[in-house]
Amino acid sequence: MSDNQNSTDLTKQGGQELDRFQDPGIPAHKSRMADRDPQAAKRAEMQVVILFTISIIGTIGMLVAFFALPEDTSIAGIRMANLIIGLGLAFALLGIGLAAVHWAKTLMSDHEHVDERHAQRSSDAVRAEAVQALTEGAEDSGIARRGVLKGAVVTALALFPLAIAVPLVAEVGGDWNVSKFRHTLWKPKMRLALDPSGRPIKAEDVTIGSAFHVIPDVPEEVRNSHEWISEKAKAIVLMVRLDPRDLKEAPDRKDWSYDGIVAYSKVCTHVGCPVALYEQQTHHLLCPCHQSTFDVADGAKVVFGPAKRPLPQLPITVDDEGYLVAQSDFHEPVGPSYWERLK
Question: Which of 24, 58, 305, 318 lies most in the core, judged by the most C-beta atoms within 10 Å?
């Protein structure tokens, strides 16, 4: 039987076409265990309280971790802090969500009601009935006569916003010294090293078309310092080697590359994401966050996307042993533009 024939049969009754379907009405109400057994209702109430308590503990744990964890900028320390704070937030949100669902399914009224459509502005009598219905609904939820449950939900909902507000307030009061972006760890004659191994790179190891993720070759004590992560984040570089005939270099930058090897900051000039997707055939460098695209063969100029200026170039050369080294720091601040700059 076709769909059209099924539809025709459904709209006919006794050989006559129907202009509307018969209202099947509301199915018979099925009572829940908590409706029939006071002990079951009490158990459900305690389960909801426990879930709200988990949320309270999660929020308090997150706040304690945020303020009490020792400052450790090593990768392991950052991962551990993020894990503990993230777990606190997870339990805070999960506790509230599960408690609300369990409360609604086991304790709140589950009777279905039908409201006929009416004008948008109800009469005063209907509005009074609506207020009465809300009052009865609040009574149905049992929160007024369940003191422990009321205390748990109020405490959980009151504490949870702190898990979001406290880190935001702490961030507002953080370090706003943007002048630090004017300089990085790069210094004259500092070797270019592979990220993350830290092995210095020789020019002969860089073949045409290859791309290297580069960091400064700094002493071991610098790598073990608390400032290393933030300083490394500013100094990261992507280095590629092109056929020298493909390079379009400004007259004042012709000595910034070495035999087709060029190095540019990996920090996108849009919002600071790491630019690391290199397309060998087009010489294009793509930022994965917002698709800003830079032409490595032409001074890393923007060819697509929201970025407004080229990637800063790191002037490089080689030392007496054939290792690639920086001629100087970047000649302009790395990363996104900010209010103290013209662009």
Answer: 58
The candidate with the shortest Cα–Cα distance to 341, out of 312, 301, 313, 316, is 312
Show Cβ contacts of residue 251 under 8 Å, excluding neighbours closer than 6 positions.
none
In the chain, domain spans = 33-111+127-172, 180-326
Contacts of 327 (CB under 8 A, 6+ apart): 188, 255, 256, 315, 316, 317
If we measure between CA atoms, which residue out of 232, 251, 250, 235 comes closest to residue 328?
Answer: 235
Return per-residue pLDDT of the chain as tens, 343 residues: 454 555 445 455 555 555 666 777 777 778 888 888 889 889 999 999 999 999 999 999 999 888 888 776 666 777 888 889 899 999 999 999 999 999 888 888 777 767 666 567 777 888 888 888 888 777 777 667 677 888 888 898 888 888 888 777 765 556 666 667 778 999 999 999 998 888 999 999 999 999 999 999 998 888 877 778 888 989 999 999 999 999 999 999 989 999 999 999 999 999 889 998 899 889 999 999 999 999 999 999 999 999 989 999 999 999 999 999 999 999 988 888 765 555 5
With beta carbons less than 8 A apart as the criterion, state whether 74 and 229 touch. yes
pTM: 0.55
The residue length of the chain stands at 343
Tokens at 74, concatenated: 């090593």
Residue type, 315: P
Cis, bond preceding 196 (omega within 30 deg of 0) = yes
Residue 141 burial by Cβ neighbours in a 10 Å radius (0-12, 13-18, 19+): middle
CB count in 10 Å sphere of residue 270: 21
CATH of domain 180-326: 2.102.10.10
d(CA 307, CA 185) in angstroms, rounded, equals: 24
